[in-house]
Every structure is written in structure tokens, then in C-alpha cells.
Amino acid sequence: MKKCKTAAFMTALMVSLCVPQAFPDNPYVIVAEAHSGRTDSSGGHRDNKNKSGLGSYHYHCGGHPAHLHPNGVCPYDSTALSASVQSSVAASPKPEVPDNISLVFVSKYYADHNPDLYEQFGYDEELLLNHFLTYGMQEGRTASEEFQVSVYKENNPDLVNAYGDDTAAYYEHYMSCGHSEGRICR
Fold this sequence. Notes:
Layout: H1 2-17, E1 44-46, E2 57-59, H2 78-91, H3 107-112, H4 115-121, H5 125-139, H6 149-155, H7 157-163, H8 167-178
Antiparallel strand pairs: 1-2
Helix pairs in contact: 2-4, 5-8
């Protein structure tokens, strides 16, 4: 009987610790976000139903939202970002900027909603845009309040059939014709 009470108490404690709204100012609150599947030795896991919108494999490093590791580097690892991404973004050839990039990208919004990028690039519009075109679109990063790639994919199954896991293609489609077609994107 004592074990049952202890187990019930621990279950209640675990549930209460996983509800951050219950203790907004408590630094000891544990926030647990999970879905089915185990992580491998790299901290990533398969997402066969592509619920994340990032393809069949992604990471959840350090409690950050589902994301990819371009070139094997976590975009949320500030030391790795500092060394590899910052130099590669700054040194990489300037990608061609689509005429209507403003439909999916606002540099201040991109910096404000991606603290790892703000830490590295501040509000430098050129570096932020270069990162977005080089990495951000393929990672599925949100760069504008007006366009959410996950919402766009969810509401346009014809595009999922055409583009599959090529996340950047959804941004390109929206800029080239999805916007003028009035497709749902937020």
C-alpha cells in the first residue's frame, strides 16, 4: 500500500513539474516535451510521419524546437555556430535573392525569433538573409509573421506530394505562385 501511495505521489509530482504555467517563476520546473520514438546516440530520431515538417529525421537539442543539423552542426550550439556557421555564412557566395523575398523573410523578425542567429549576427540584414537563403529555409525556420512553412505544408497536400521533404521548395513555391494563388500559410 505504501508503494502505491509513493508511486501516485511521484506521478502527481512529475505531472505538476511538467506544467510550466503552474510555476511561472520557479527555476526548478522541468518542462517535458516529447513524442513517440527514442533518440539515437546523436540526440536525433526518426519522424516517419513527418509531424515536424522537417523530414524523416530531426533533433531536439537542449529543449529547442525540432530542427536539423546542417553540415552536422546544431544551429542552437552557439560555440559551433560561432565557429562554423558564422564564418561559412559570411564567407559563402551570396545566394541569388528572389524578387519577392519579403513575402517570407523579414530580417528583424528572423533575428528576434532565432536567438542563436541574433547572438551571432545581431540585426545585420545581409548576414541574416544569407543565412536564411543558405540554411534557414531548408531548416524550416520562420522568418516572417506572414509565412509559416509548417502551416503551408499542412494546408497544401498537393505540394507535399510534389516537394516531399525539400523544405526550401515550399518557400520558393509560395514566393513564385502560392501567394498570388491565395494559399493558406499562417
